[in-house]
Amino acid sequence: MQIPKPDPKAKKALEAIVASVPGAVVKPMFGNFSGFKDGTMFAGMFGKEVFVRLSEDDRAAALEVPGAKVFEVMKGRPMKEYVCLPPAVLADKKKTGAWVAKSIAYARTVPPKKRGDK
Questions:
Q1: CATH number, domain containing residue 21
Q2: Cα angle 33, 39, 40; round to 5
Q3: What pLDDT does residue 113 have?
């Protein structure tokens, strides 16, 4: 599998997302970068894609947005909780902020991983 290099535009979008969440940090992941709040990943980037972690209901709503899709690190291997936001959403701070708020709300419900969990 070839890991795409981080796209500067996507990285800038992710950094803006993370900066909008008090206490959130950017960490390397998948050869790219992800946003974490209290140790839980809530957003990330992979190549040119920027994704958020959403509840089942919010994922269904997000996937109705034209251009949105389930995030896949490898083709045919979806990460079911994550949805890639289309460029039209990322270009609109209000729309992006709404999805990030939903992502943070969902991330707060995810039990913290214990050391050694995969």
A1: 3.30.1460.30
A2: 70
A3: 74
Token output for 53: 């972690």
DSSP 8-state assignment for residue 55:
-
Q: Which long-range contacts (CB under 8 A, 24 or more apart) does 19-27 make?
A: 20/97, 20/100, 21/100, 21/104
> Domain containing 102: what range?
8-107
* Number of structural domains the chain divides into: 1
pLDDT over 70 (residue 115):
no
Q: State how far the Cα of 70 lies from the Cα of 75, in Å rounded to an integer.
A: 11
Higher pLDDT, 52 or 112: 52
Average pLDDT over residues 74-87: 92
Residue 51: C-alpha distances to residues 38, 46, 54, 114 (Å): 18, 8, 10, 24
User: Which residue is associated with the tokens 């992710």?
Assistant: 14
User: For 93, what's the count of Cα atoms within 13 Å in the CB-facing half-sphere?
Assistant: 6
The mean per-residue pLDDT over the stretch 40-58 comes to 97
Q: Using an 8 Å Cβ cutoff, are 33 and 43 in contact?
A: no
Kindly tell me if the per-residue pLDDT of 24 is higher than 80: yes
